[in-house]
Design brief:
Layout lengths: L11 H9 L2 H23 L4 H17 L1 H14 L3 E5 L2 H14 L4 E4 L3 H5 L2 H7 L3 E4 L2 H9 L15 H12 L7 H18 L2 E4 L3 E3 L4 E6 L3 H7 L3 E7 L3 E2 L5 H13 L6 E5 L13 E7 L3 H5 L15 H5 L1 H6 L10 H12 L1 H4 L11 H5 L6 H14 L5 H14 L2 H14 L4 E2 L2 E2 L23 H8 L11
Parallel strand pairs: 1-10, 2-3, 2-4, 4-7, 5-8, 7-10
Antiparallel strand pairs: 5-6, 6-9, 11-12
Helix pairs in contact: 2-12, 3-12, 9-10, 16-19
């Protein structure tokens, strides 16, 4: 985890092996992710200027990052002018301390939270509970994983790893309420359990999808209405946001909002888009009496200063890269061992935590490029993953066997003759294991490649051998004219 629990090296390989053995998880992933991909593609296809929007969003985020200090200062001034308070938190411990102090000054005993990956990043809930403040997650997915004592497994869909029957069983055990397992029935159970919590809470906690420097506005996007209640019903609202959530102008939201929902869930627009500017004013019917905004660094300025990796800060947390990633599709989010999973998590977690803790994550990728193709802000994720892999090697965190294999492969692929010989040997040996046009099981020490997948056999003839005979003007009397 990126907060106080992040002290052990992440074992992505061990976590993945456990995930692959989890039959319930595998069923959930097979059902959910193809649906997300189809919905996203259909929603994007409805927008003729989709690629222009992606380019515009990338430019907006780049402008914000180039002048981040200016826009953050402007945002702070606008929040203050509207009656709110901005706190700067250097790291997770600093953020937790500030929030606990604010809550204690108001005598808060109960806090309700909307979904916030940034609060997960800083391990906020345990800190509040240690201070005697009960915390209730109000997003349905977060409510489920809180009852289960787990972490979110997806940036957008926290309980992606659980099917309705598992949730029904959880509600029966923890809430004492029987339900049919139908989504509507599960939502009803959660709604009834949470309604009184909203009314009794002394503090509401949220994240922010975007923050507008021009106006000091927090933008919170959701589908359930719980975030709107959490940010307006309690007398105290605390918003926790990373420094990178800034956009320069209110007009920029016109671009970002058209991309976010379509990329995340395939919706044209989210059900609720709340623009929150300051606490309640005189004459207003709702809203908090106090607003506190926590601007969290926690490694972000270090990433900003890295010219090779800084574009990762463009991320708008849509989760699209996870939905198309073949690794995430088989392992789910918990295997990454950190709050941020998927391709973007494999980049920002090492940047935030350090390679000594998260050095395995950049290798959790096939480098197929699907993540870059769907990223709404055009982050070149495969390039960033390769850069981090190079740094892991340079830091000496790769074993001797891996180094030997890499050097052998490099020496082989650098010489056409060696490649040709290797191909011929491979085609001979695969006769021992290929069946019905595929390889289902490889012998030691290659058995890991086929433990959870089927490998295609080598082609009967290498492309380099076919090319001279088929190229125009070469072999078989071919030619132009």
């Amino acid at each position: 985890m990126l907060g106080s629990r992040a002290h052990r090296r992440i074992d992505m390989i061990g976590n993945s092996e456990a995930a692959l053995r989890d039959a319930a998880l595998q069923r959930a992933l097979r059902v959910a992710l193809p649906s997300f991909r189809q919905q996203r593609d259909a929603a994007a296809a409805e927008v003729p200027e989709w690629e222009a929007l992606r380019a515009a969003a990338a430019a907006i985020k780049e402008e914000a990052l180039r002048h981040l200090a200016v826009y953050l200062t402007q945002f702070e001034a606008q929040v203050a002018a509207c009656g709110g308070v901005v706190h700067w938190a250097e790291d997770a411990a600093d953020a937790r301390r500030i929030i606990v102090e604010v809550a204690r000054r108001r005598g808060v005993r109960l806090a309700v939270k909307s979904k916030s990956m940034t609060s997960e990043e800083i391990d906020l809930n345990p800190a509040l509970e240690a201070a005697g403040i009960r915390v209730v997650e109000t997003d349905l997915g977060e409510f489920i994983v809180q009852l289960a004592g787990e972490r979110p497994s997806h940036i957008v869909v926290p309980a992606l790893h659980k099917d309705p029957d598992a949730v029904a069983g959880l509600f029966a055990r923890r809430l004492g309420v029987r339900s049919t397992g139908q989504p509507q029935d599960l939502a009803r159970v959660a709604r009834e359990a949470l309604r009184a919590e909203f009314l009794a809470a002394g503090m509401g906690i949220s994240g922010a999808n975007f923050a507008v420097a021009e106006t000091g506005t927090l933008v919170v996007i959701e589908n359930e209405g719980n975030a709107r209640l959490a940010t307006t019903q309690p007398p105290l609202h605390v918003a926790v946001m990373g420094l990178e959530k800034i956009v320069p102008r209110l007009a920029d939201l016109g671009v970002m909002l058209r991309l976010l929902a379509r990329s995340a869930t395939g919706q044209r627009a989210s059900v609720y888009v709340s623009l929150l500017t300051g606490p309640r004013r005189a004459g207003e019917a709702d809203g908090p009496q106090e607003l506190h905004v926590i601007l969290l660094d926690n490694g972000r300025t270090r990433l900003l200063a890295d010219p090779d990796l800084r574009e990762a800060l463009r991320c708008i947390r849509c989760g699209a890269c996870s939905n198309v990633c073949p690794v995430f599709e088989r392992t789910g989010g918990h295997a990454y061992g950190t709050v941020y999973s998927g391709p973007i998590g494999a980049v920002i977690s090492p940047a935030y935590l350090g390679l000594e803790r998260a050095g395995e994550l950049p290798f959790a990728s096939t480098l197929c490029g699907a993540c870059a193709e769907v990223c709404p802000v055009k982050i070149a994720l495969p390039r960033l993953l390769l850069e981090l892999r190079c740094r892991v090697v340079e830091a000496g965190q790769v074993g001797r066997l891996d180094r030997l294999l890499a050097r052998t492969w490099t020496a082989t692929m650098a010489t056409p003759g060696r490649v040709r010989v290797l191909g011929r040997v491979g085609r001979l040996l695969q006769r021992l294991v290929a069946r019905r046009g595929r390889i289902e099981r490889l012998p030691y020490p290659l058995q890991g490649w086929t433990a959870h997948r089927v490998a295609p056999p080598l082609a009967p003839q290498a492309f380099r051998d076919r090319w001279p005979a088929r190229a125009p003007g070469r072999g078989n009397g071919g030619g132009c004219g």
